[in-house]
UniProtKB/TrEMBL annotation:
It comes from Streptomyces shenzhenensis. Residues 5-172 form the TerD domain. Gene3D superfamilies: sav2460 like domains. This is Tellurium resistance. Residues 182-202, 209-218 have a biased composition (Pro residues). Residues 176-218 are annotated as: Disordered.
Length: 436
């Protein structure tokens, strides 16, 4: 199927049993809601557990078959991407439903909404469905992969809900921590009629033998699974800051994750001038200033990985070169020591493998152990930058306030990326050369 050929609603197409990139896209603008992609792995029409729901707060399935790769904003459109490896989908899973939810409005205000499937390795177009005619819907099942005769097919579905991600998730058996409807939400857009999926198979129920004579011994109830949290905060240029305390993030661990995608092998990507090919290596780092005036840096360079339970109460988990949401680069901040922080600046540098951040599409997520996660995307890089300030976390009256920075900086000749970000934010540290 050509990249410009959109499938009609209800149609299906054969897809390879391979790793596929599923791109949800739309055209942004004033008053256009944010949109999020999600996936549900179904057995007999329902999830087996809340772990079968992959979305921004639960970005990877335990099987490795589905993961949420994050958003990017480029060329006048925003995309949110899932990677679905059909070869790794467990044998019991019959369908992988591909959904979209609108945050801050209905899909009637989202122009040019589409879902496109490509071969993740080769980039070949596999399937595409352009969704039109939306009105009050706040969630959509746009498409699905389903098993057929030993292979997989993609169906263009186009079924809408007016109850948001919560209603859609609940309808497929997810337990959420938001107020729920007393009855399953009814679709407001009819599903595709042709080629309906096979009816659910009847699952035999276990029969329990009657208890012996005598008073029954009460058994302790099974532990309740934690419900899925759907709330989140998305920082933008217009609304760049958020209080962690107001979102419930006052204790425990705060995990800061950077993930990225490189879509094109442009000149400069994958090499430095005059050197052999090297893989891209980005380093997540943090400048810190403690309440007692001590300053420092947490980074892989010089093995300055920090510590979570003693100053600076910030720890770098390791060095990742894939950019995947399930791994990526991660910093952890101990929120139990909020009073010990004055400010923390999270930034990223290119250690090797590229001359700038051009064509790097990255997402930053801050996930507190308690409270709503905070996320934002980086803007396109249009300058020869090797260091980007991501987020500034400031202690304001005992509350940590996160501010989106997303500032690409260009080091002067002979000046390191670390010294460049230090100067830009007035940290005032002395720097010496270092290596991993």
């Amino acid at each position: 199927m050509g990249a410009d050929m959109s499938m009609p609603k209800g149609s299906n197409a054969q897809v390879p049993t391979a790793a596929l990139r599923v791109e949800l896209g739309w055209r942004p603008g004033p008053g256009v809601p944010d949109v999020d992609a999600s996936a549900l792995l179904l057995v007999a029409g329902k999830v087996r557990s809340d772990g079968d729901f992959v979305f921004y707060n639960q970005p990877a399935h335990s099987s490795g078959a589905v993961r949420h790769e994050g958003k990017r904003n480029a060329a006048g459109r925003v995309t949110d991407t899932l990677l679905v490896d059909l070869a790794r989908v467990e044998a019991a899973v019959e369908r992988v439903v591909l959904a979209a939810s609108a945050d801050g409005g209905s899909f009637g205000r989202v122009p040019d909404l589409y879902i496109a499937v490509t071969d993740a390795a080769r980039g070949d177009a596999v399937a595409r469905f352009d969704s039109t005619g939306a009105t009050v819907e706040t969630a959509f099942v746009l498409g699905e992969f389903y098993r057929r005769q030993g292979g997989w097919k993609f169906r263009a579905v186009g079924q809408g809900y007016d109850s948001g991600l919560e209603g859609l998730a609940t309808d497929f058996g997810i337990t959420v921590d938001e107020p729920q409807h007393t009855a399953p939400p009814a679709p407001v857009t009819p599903p595709a009629s042709p080629a309906a999926p096979p009816p659910p198979q009847t699952v035999p129920r276990a029969v329990t033998a009657p208890p012996p004579a005598g008073p029954p011994v009460p058994l302790p109830p099974p532990p309740a699974a934690a419900p899925v949290r759907l709330s989140k905060v998305t920082l933008t240029k217009a609304a760049p800051s958020v209080s962690l305390a107001k979102q419930g993030g006052t204790s425990g661990a705060l995990r800061v994750n950077l993930n990225w995608q490189v879509r094109k092998q442009l000149a400069g990507w994958g090499r430095r001038r005059g050197t052999a090919h090297r893989e891209l290596d980005l380093d997540l780092c943090a400048l810190y200033e403690l309440a007692d005036g001590r300053k420092g840096v947490v980074q892989a360079l010089g093995n300055a990985f920090g510590s979570l339970h003693r100053p600076p109460y910030i720890h770098l988990d390791g060095d990742d070169r894939t950019g995947a949401v399930s791994s990526g680069e991660n910093l952890t901040v101990n929120l139990d020591h909020t009073r010990d922080f004055r400010r923390i600046l999270v930034f990223v540098t290119i250690y090797e493998g590229a001359d700038s951040f051009a064509d790097l599409h990255a997402t930053v997520a801050l996930r507190p152990q308690h409270g709503a996660p905070v996320e934002f995307s980086l803007d396109e890089c249009t300058v020869p930058s090797t260091v980007c300030a991501l987020a500034l976390i400031t202690n304001t009256g005992g509350d940590l306030v996160v501010r989106r920075e997303a500032q690409y900086l260009v080091p002067e000749r002979g000046v390191s990326p670390q010294r460049t970000v230090d100067r830009a934010y007035g940290w005032g540290m002395n720097w010496t050369p270092g290596r991993k």
